[in-house]
Amino acid sequence: MKFTTLLVLVSLSGALFGQAFDDQGCTGAVGDVKYSVLSPQDFENENGDCWIFMDGSAMSSSNRLFSYTGWTHIPDARGFFIRSLDTRTSSRVDVDRSGSEEPGHVQYHQIKAHRHGLAPQVVAAFGNAIPGANGGDGAATLLSRTAFEGGNETRPSNIILYTYIRID
Length: 168
What we know:
The protein is α+β, with helices and mostly antiparallel strands. It has helices at about 1-15, 40-45, 65-70, 120-125, 135; strands at about 35, 50-55, 160-165. It has a three-stranded antiparallel sheet with strand order 1-3-2, covered by helices on one side. The radius of gyration is 27 Å and the shape is elongated. The two termini are about 40 Å apart. About 10% of the residues are buried.
């Protein structure tokens, strides 16, 4: 009795925690997206050939994913952050989208409109004129610009991984 119980538990844990392959020899369901540190070839060896690297390549109409999405190309996820679809009609986080966009829709970079104020000590010292501006007469209007700061892009801290999608 103890041996049978142990065998059943081992079988259940293998099904729950191991790789489950379908009749095509692939893991996951059509449309699933996975991140991985494995190269495309190693990923295919581990998960089956039903997965493709999300690099914008053409997709055949015979792929099962095409029948669900109508996509002729895989979305190109290289260099993009993945953002979950916000389908709420109010209190939306993603205010620049309507919520009716299909998964795979690209939204390009943007920085929210904003201003940088001048430090109070600059305004207090010079009022509305900058001494020495416009030939030194001090009559120039104070410009509300700050010096450039930062790098070449706006981004959160991140880690790069390969992104794959199951197509069959």
